[in-house]
Amino acid sequence: xxxxxxxxxxxxxxxxxxxxxxxxxxxxxxxxxxxxxxxxxxxxxxxxxxxxxxxxxxxxxxxxxxxxxxxxxxxxxxxxxxxxxxxxxxxxxxxxxxxxxxxxxxxxxxxxxxxxxxxxxxxxxxxxxxxxxxxxxxxxxxxxxxxxxxxxxxxxxxxxxxxxxxxxxxxxxxxxxxxxxxxxxxxxxxxxxxxxxxxxxxxxxxxxxxxxxxxxxxxxxxxxxxxxxxxxxxxxxxxxxxxxxxxxxxxxxxxxxxxxxxxxxxxxxxxxxxxxxxxxxxxxxxxxxxxxxxxxxxxxxxxxxxxxxxxxxxxxxxxxxxxxxxxxxxxxxxxxxxxxx
Length: 341
Description:
47% of the residues lie in helices and 15% in strands.
């Protein structure tokens, strides 16, 4: 760091180049992705940055590159969903950490109404972020199509209904996870297996219900439509769904709930009705979120690999920002056995 008139001046790119013994152009290439830079030169520049304490002037670089050097995390749900559903917080934290490794800040955006979606879409397409991580996109939601048509790099969490061939996405294998859960419930000798689905305009809602139907059919168990009720991924929705199932089918002996948060609500309804879990009704959830271990009894569930999902979303988005074509990643899930089933 240089000093003039008693005041210490922040280090510049020239200071880094001098310390590293390379040209200013080499330092610039390292700062902009390391293209056409040898490993030795890159290490020398990184060491010089650490030694001098150089900090990138993001505003100046954005004027040169035309990039904002930031990414948006867009949740197309009402604000209360963000605070209620622990999955969103886990995903946000993972994406923030993955981007921090690239020194890129993440901007949280919540668009639960049509007006909010319009405002945020204008903000994004004006170039205030370089790309978007889209979470909880419902079918018919115009945001993904608008951003795609505007040329904004975009990665969805979950397979976007109707746009899977046009939009990059990272998803857990929802259908296979549901199949594993229903097989497990059948292995316990349960035959009257109800299901509280996720919203059927979301990929998780559709795929988990499909897995449930497939395994019952393979096992020769007739799918009784009275055993299926729609849910909304909320605790209250799970409680209402379980109460409705008990009224419809009093001899229910198992319940597959499409999210852990809904399963928490279902447990409350079962306990209020005097049904023991798992003795009378075995219960399985989905996600392996903090809600699974907070439940009483602790939930048998399907683990989504949230760390890998967030890391892959960031990797695919940065690749797309760098000019690569859209791509899709589907990650395996895992059955986690606890006390509820």
